[in-house]
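Collaboration report, partner site 2.

Our partner group contributed sequences for two proteins of shared interest, and the home lab folded both. The records are reproduced in the order in which they were received, starting with the first partner submission.
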Amino acid sequence: MRISLLALALFATAGAAAAEANLSIPLKSGTMDSVESATYTCGDGEPFSVQYVNAGANALAIFPIDGEDRIFVNVVSASGAKYASGAHVWWTKSNTATLENEMEEGSIQECQSQDTPPSE
């Protein structure tokens, strides 16, 4: 079984004309792999959905930043799950998360899951 990330559409601009380019990343999926969705709110902002893709050695989080879908890749963390996309870092633990742009001082946003956490 393969997880096809057709939702990962990237737009490329070539010269004066804009062309649409679609990117699909096939990932082999086993019985322990999953695609899950969670809804978060940061501060007084609007709720947004985060897609978590876990397929073998690949762990991704996909959600919009400034109106553009971004793909975050899981990186090493001491606690919780930490994902990075460019200068942005998404760090989750239990039903809370932080979003930071490491290029902007004081940009850390505290976020809260709107979903009921799974029982442990």
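Second partner submission, folded after the first:
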Amino acid sequence: MAKLKLGPIVDEKPVKVTVELPAILHRNLTAYAEVLGRDAGTPPIDAARLIVPMLERFIATDRGFAKARQSERRLKPEA
């Protein structure tokens, strides 16, 4: 079993977004989806479904972003 940063993909109500990706990124997303599905014992996930959890994970683990948001909150007066 591969140690991936993403866990199982939650099936939520989808929101349609149009994004252009470089071909290599799409191939890598597809390969990641295949590994994720294989590790979970499920069919491969559509690569597009990985974009949101990957972005969420990236934002959640970005220390610089967390510090910037924390500074922003301290500067804003509470309503």
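Feedback sent to the partner group on the second submission included the following. Residues 69 and 75 are 10 Å apart (CA to CA). The helical segments are 23-40, 51-60, 63-75.
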